[in-house]
Amino acid sequence: MTQVNGMWKRLAMACTLLAMPALAWAQSADPHRWQLNMGKGVTASSQHAYDAHMIALIVCIVIGIIVFGAMGYAMFKFRKSKGAVAAQFSHNTTAEIIWTVIPVLILVVMAWPATAKLIAMYDTRDAEMTVKVTGYQWMWKYEYLGEDVSFTSRLDRESDRIRQSGEKPDLVKNPHYLLDVDNQLVLPTDTKIRFVITADDVIHAWWVPALGWKQDAIPGIVNEAWTDIKEPGVYRGQCAELCGKDHGFMPIVVKAVPKAEFEQWLASKKPAPAAEPAPAAPSPETAPAEAAPANAAASASAAETPAPSAQG
Ligand SMILES: [Cu+2]
């Protein structure tokens, strides 16, 4: 008996040692080569998904150990060579009730927190800002609603050059080959951000694993999602719905920065304000607020004037 106990202890220790690298890798936001477990991500949603996954995984492991342990023990202990004779019975009501009720209880225990987390994932109320994401063949458009800031984001030119040239990509020189974009989606941390997601041509799906969800981008339909990124960093993703020949070449890059830095970035992306005081204005007390729009209008019309002649 002590020998059997010792064997189980050694087996448990071996299992723990084998699981250790997986537990260590699970800390990071982005996937690693040979990663075994899912990542924890950097948002509450991704943490919830990770927790639900770990609960289910642990339940599966415990059930697996119990079932296969009992099977192995029964096959070894009651083997034919030891003179064991198969029991003869057609059914046992007590056993049937037990093996129905226990799995139902296990499922309820697993479904309860999972459902609560799923409901929370779809609750976009009380968002502090909204970003509209539109999928195109083959790029993304981001609009910061109400901020007058929008831009497209597509595969970076160097990745595109390498893939079209047929040369072998060097992952040391280009560690983010096919995973970089020209314009990153900059987002603030510690902010509830609502996404409205759609597409302009075919179905795409916007997916950044570190945020913990993916959402279909469907023409004519506006889907919703939200995030609240806890850690500043660069998080990469891809289109996750087969959308055409360049489906594999429309990556996503989210750059999460602290709120103050985001405000600065957003201000820098807004169209230049019309009321720029002219530096040459000598009047020290009142900035010529009306003069500036007039200047802007004048320069705008000056810019427009030569256009017809240039065309003609
Ligand atoms: Cu796509």
From TrEMBL:
It is a multi-pass membrane protein. Residues 126-268 form the Cytochrome oxidase subunit II copper A binding domain. It catalyses: 4 Fe(II)-[cytochrome c] + O2 + 8 H(+)(in) = 4 Fe(III)-[cytochrome c] + 2 H2O + 4 H(+)(out). Its main location: membrane. Keywords: Copper, Electron transport, Membrane, Metal-binding, Respiratory chain, Signal, Translocase, Transmembrane, Transmembrane helix, Transport. It is found in: Cell membrane; Membrane. The keyword ATP-binding does not apply. Residues 268-312 are annotated as: Disordered. The keyword Transmembrane helix applies. Residues 30-125 form the Cytochrome oxidase subunit II transmembrane region profile domain. Residues 283-312 have a biased composition (Low complexity). Belongs to the cytochrome c oxidase subunit 2 family. This is Cytochrome c oxidase subunit 2. It comes from Pseudoxanthomonas japonensis.
